[in-house]
Specification:
Blueprint lengths: L11 H19 L7 H15 L9 E5 L6 H8 L3 E6 L9 H11 L1 H13 L2 H13 L11 E3 L12 E7 L7 H14 E10 L50 H9 L2 E8 L11 H6 L5 H4 L4 E7 L2
Parallel strand pairs: 1-2, 1-4, 2-3, 4-5
Antiparallel strand pairs: 5-7, 6-7
Helix pairs in contact: 2-3, 4-5
Length: 310
Amino acid sequence: MKFAPSTADLPLPAKLAEGVVLLRDFAARRRLAPAAPGDVADLDEYDELLRRHGGPPLARARVLEIGYGARPFRLIAMRSLGVDALGVDAEVPILAGTRAEYRQAFRRNGLERVVKSFVRRSLFDRRERAAFRAELERRGVRERIDRKAFLVSDAAELELASGSLDLITSEDVFEHIERGSLERLTGRIAEWLAPGGLALIRPNVFTGITGGHLVEWYRHSFQLPGRGRRSEPWEHLRRSRWQPNTYLNELTRADYRELFGRHFQILDEVVKLPDLGREHLTPDVAAELSAWGLDELLSNQVLFVLSPRS
């Protein structure tokens, strides 16, 4: 079983056009105040949910993050704070920016991903990393990167003991995994969790305004002044004239409920930004999207709080 590729088989001009938009957005964001270290704030949410549902505090939990991504700040923060945490991702992370890392990433991730990582790290990531380190210092710790915690694998192929974890998290990853792989992975997650453990899975739901993963409709783009877009709101559900440079399984919020319900009790669903995109839901747009309710169209990032069935 393999995860879907992280980049789509788009024509080169389309990929270059996306790259131009990304560069423009990164440059615009640099003119704004440094972003709050939201990845570290996620840990406070995890800790609160563990305690609320009878689990151990995060500081004493055994944790797995599925899909730590190109900016693995959550996993670094957990390790820096002394949490017993591992992460798994299909791609090699660039942790220090060394030549050896880039060579390894090229062999595993391919040229396109390596170029994106190099440009972003070289030109735009410095302030974000500084804000991240400042937040760790505010919490009384220094950044600590433990390479052994960064596993590179298909998550469903991991050999983990049954009941060995208290918490499994995943942010903005499940929408990029083929449905057949997801069906197997969710079963493994339920198996790995100890009694009273939680899975906190937050996909970017396809039916939300950001769910089509067009760069110009990324969540942060709503904050950029004078933001012009060539596509229309919910382009992926209406015109579908442009395709994102990534694989999407196109699961709806209802699809995730059905998928997770096979192995878990769904304790809660928490929409991260409940009104994101509402101003674009004009009567004409709403009429075109009448097949989906507001719980789908305003979903975007939805945290599913899951407890394994006995």
